[in-house]
Amino acid sequence: MDMFDKDALSVDIATRLRELRQGKGMSLRALAARSGLSANALSMIERGKVSPSVSTLYRVADALGAPITAFFGQPASRSKVVFQKAAARTRVSFQRGLWEGLGGEQFSGRVEPFMLTLESGTSSGIHSMVHTGHEFVFCLRGRLEYHVENQAFELEPGDSLIFAAHLRHRWRSIGNIVTNALIVLSDFSEGEKVVSMHITHEGSAGD
């Protein structure tokens, strides 16, 4: 089974990072100092030599003072009511996964639902994530391991998990089949759009 949509939106993280950094008038060295990443690692990302993991992308967005969705483009305006047909979803394919927006990227409220499709072994990166609001996870297929602070949870189809997102957390797809999960982020701080931090490339050099 092909887990990727052939019509998925192509996202150029390298170009977007360079545009965002230059738009802030920030040098690579300054961004490195703010993010805690090395200038060399950031340079490699900007040149498309490596793909940032979830945790790396989040750290860079935070250092830039930009919403995480800035890397993936945002609609010109947001609405209080969003109806979305399945065929009209925003789809972003990555090396080992697929992110599908469920309307949150167009919604004016503080809720961001999305679907993740992950190959076995894909992870959010070696660094834990921390953000405001709450996170709800529902496993539809496969197995998904979530670490929240010092607790580990193994989700199988039908299992769910909800937690305060200020707790350090990370995840990885386990087992030998593709994993599908519904994730809903809610009540995050205004301006902190925390959708795409959960998209990953395994084995990034940015961590």
State the distance separating the first and last CA atoms.
31 Å
The CATH C-level name is Mainly Beta
User: For the record, what is the CATH homologous superfamily label?
Assistant: Jelly Rolls
Which stretches are poorly predicted, pLDDT < 50 over at least 5 residues? Answer: 1-10, 200-207
Strand content: 25-35%
| β-strand number | 9
Work out the radius of gyration: 16 Å
Secondary-structure class? alpha+beta
Could you explain the architecture of this structure?
The structure is a single chain. The chain has helices at 13-23, 28-35, 39-46, 54-64; strands spanning 91-94, 97-101, 111-118, 134-141, 143-148, 151-155, 160-164, 169-174, 179-186. With 207 residues, it is of the alpha+beta class. It has one domain: Jelly Rolls (Sandwich). It has a six-stranded antiparallel β-sheet, with no helix packed on it. Strands 6-5-8 form a three-stranded antiparallel β-sheet, with no helix packed on it. β5 (143-148) and β6 (151-155) form a beta hairpin. The longest helix has 11 residues, at 13-23. It is globular, with a radius of gyration of 16 Å. The two termini are 31 Å apart. Mean pLDDT is 80; it is low at 1-10 and 200-207.
Short synopsis of the structure:
The relative contact order is 0.21. The chain is built from 4 helices and 9 strands.
